[in-house]
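Troubleshooting log. The previous structure file for this entry was overwritten by mistake, so regenerating from the original sequence record. Sequence copied from the archived sheet and checked twice against the printout by T.R.
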Amino acid sequence: MKKDVYNHEGRYKTWKEDAVLYGIDGLTKENSDMVLRYLIDMETGTNISIKNKKGARSYPRLNNLKQRMRQLLILLQNRGVTNIIQVTDSQINALFNDMRSGAIATKNGEAYRSAGDYAKVFASFWHWWMKVNRKVGIGIIDLTEDLDKSSPEGRFVYITKEQLDLMLPYLTEEEQIIICFIFDTLIRAPTELMSMKVNNVFIKDGQVWITIPKEISKITNFERRFNLLYCGDALIEYIAKKGLKPNDYLFDFKHSLLTEKLHKVGKQLFGEGVSDPSAGGKYEELSMYDFRHAGAVHYRILASKNAKITLDSIRQRGGWSDFKMLNYYTKFIGIDGSIDKNDLIIPEDKTKMEKEIEELKKNDSLMAKKFMGLLEILKQHPEEMKIIFKENKKEIRELFVSC
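Regenerated output below.
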């Protein structure tokens, strides 16, 4: 079972109790009632659009929906829309265009990088509203057809394996294990990371392996099982030193405190600049999740140099259902479309060719010695060799060709 690291369930239930009694803070009564009605259906999986995944929404998803819906409706209310069901397509499109352009800015004065995510949330709400009305024979126009739901590539802090090693002396032993574990496993932190238990670690063929159960995965619905490459021995020592039992959580720490420390260490060691132009994140923004990104880039570089490391193995390790993120990392490290012709030769054929070349080299050396010996005889007995050449012209020609 996934550990509720952020207390999503408790926070949502507490918020809902207050919202039912007093309305959603900052919203008109019409907008507040509509959002609550929508969220209650999402809790039970009722009136889900055919375009969306069926079933009740998780507490993390419910918290995300209520936060984004509230923000959207406050922005619309500032533009005179006091009842969301009366919004027009021109109003909603103008809102998202202004969020993307920066005409409507975040608290930091920047354009909304997550405008696409807000658009998806509104689309989910509107399709729910369409289905609610369709059940009673009322047709509602789809206002979401022209919405741009795309999102820019995520910003992260890029850390190389060498930089990670430089950070270790500045961290406690447990903190070292945690970031190395994230980098090695590509596990999502802190959600999946803090849901791992000691019995998810095992020894196989002399190596340390882990299993990430599908129940704790954020998105994918499959189990991940693989060996540790960098922190296996250290992890076993950590478990023994802590005296952890099979059903104990592998890591139990204040993730917010570790994040604060990573901010400080990143800035202290590497400065205030951007870690990499393509990544966009500053070193002072370094978080646990960045080690998942950094590890994925690291494995992608290894795969470009070693055909035995497949993209499928990296995808499975990171818990991705498709290759979208790996395609991003391919572009991030600048891999082009060139192919070494030598890579087209399968190992068996290459070995056979190399042996044949060696044989030819040996034969060439032997023939060269014979040829040099023949020339020496020619110099010592020119007249006799003329007669031999004349009588055996054809055979001697073939001999010279073979040499």
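The mean pLDDT is 86. Archived copy saved in two places this time.
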